[in-house]
Amino acid sequence: MGNRLTCDVVVVGAGMVGAACALYASRAGLDVALVDRGPVAGGTTGAGEGNLLVSDKEPGPELELALLSARLWTELADTLGAAIEYEPKGGLVVASEPDGLAALETFAAGQRSAGVTASGIAADGLRSLEPHLAPGLAGGVLYPQDAQVMPALAAAHLVRASGARLETGRTVTGVLRGPGGAVRGVRTDRGEIHAPAVVNAAGTWGGEVAALAGVGLPVLPRRGHVLVTEPLPRMVRHKVYAADYVADVASDSAALMTSPVVEGTAAGPVLIGASRERVGFDRTLSLPAVRALAAGATLLFPFLERVRVIRAYLGFRPYLPDHLPAIGPDPRAPGLFHACGHEGAGIGLATGTGQLIAQVLTEGEPDLDLAAFRPDRFPEEAAS
Questions:
Q1: What pLDDT digit, counting tens, does each position of 67-116 carry?
Q2: pLDDT value at 249 more than 60
Q3: Number of H helices and number of E strands within the chain?
Q4: Of 70, 230, 251, 276, which has the most beta carbons under 10 Å away?
Q5: Separation in Å, CA 177 to CA 162, 198, 337
Q6: Which residues are within 8 A (CB) of 334 and not within 5 positions of it... i.e. 6 or more apart?
Q7: Which helix (H) or strand (E) is 367 found in, with range?
Q8: What DSSP string runs through 38-97?
Q9: What does the alpha-carbon distance between residue 294 and residue 107 come to, in Å, rounded to a whole number?
Q10: What SS3 state is found at 276?
């Protein structure tokens, strides 16, 4: 191969979003190179639960992207379903108090008007959906469009299906720019890759890749922990979480926040998330976070008190100050496209993001208006 490679587009980052960009760009007829300093799914993707959620999003651009992505995941599941452990299990959001339930029902009504399927569940109907739920809850809302994949497997299968040239263990050290400022590829620690388009799908490191091209993108890390139990028979049928999770996702607080999200998996273990805290790139396992997750989960499912947690892992969710990702062309660097900053929703939003990127790469009309996702929407001081 030599140390120079020429193609139509270089995608930087082989997590779920980069894999989806590679897949849809290849399907659009482009020759793609996918570059990552580590392995496929070595960053945030490998530390996630694989949630494909519409239930936690209020009406607006992110929900539109989630609904587009959900349709595309369903299409991919027709060919890859078993391989990626795609489970259209649905989500069940529960409220412990009548006030919380009223707020949840109002939230669901707004989502319905935006195309989400959501049905209210009375208190006495909860146990038929989830026999092991704690008694005494006020009620909930069922979201049949929520689904799940095994994220590392799904990223690997999307990369394989794309046919892209995969360059793992190769670090991007610069973005090449022509005399007029247009992007013409990347410099790596193993030679240059020349292409008229570069897609920044570097997740939590999206800000660093943008800086290599001379533009500001204020991507920040938010740490999250997930607990994994010993394998069990199917005790939790849906993705089940407390109504306050939605508020935590939208919050700007740097403090530790935990709201239990409990779900079974195809392989047997129960996954328990989701904590959020802003601590920079501190990789220390936080006992307060782990304890709070365990306590919250046992309030929803008392049987978990008797179940062993076999491991806990943590990762960093990449987010931007307004909690929307950056998707699309960067007018400050012609030929640079961004697909990063999805926070905790990157697995679910990857397919829609990949399709939109492929559409703008080929100068097609994107399925969604990209104005809300513009990479240059932040004032320069925030981005530097």
A1: 999 999 999 999 998 999 999 999 999 999 998 899 999 999 999 999 99
A2: no
A3: 10, 20
A4: 276
A5: 27, 11, 14
A6: 180, 181, 182, 183
A7: none
A8: S-TT-SGGGGS--EE-STT--TTHHHHHHHHHHHHHHHHHHHHTTTTT-B---EEEEESS
A9: 27
A10: strand
Q: Phi, psi at residue 260, to the nearest 5°?
A: -70, 135
Q: How far apart are CA 210 and CA 214, in angstroms?
A: 6
Retrieve residue 86's tokens.
């795609």
Q: Are 58 and 33 in contact (CB under 8 A)?
A: no
Please say whether the beta carbons of 246 and 278 come within 8 A.
no
pLDDT recorded at residue 216? 97
- Taking alpha carbons only, the member of 51, 74, 358, 55 closest to residue 224 is 51
Judge whether residue 259 has pLDDT over 80: no
Q: In the numeric block, which tokens belong to residue 161?
A: 């299906």
| CB-neighbour burial class of residue 78 (10 A; exposed 0-12, middle 13-18, buried 19+) | exposed
Element (H, E) at 281: none
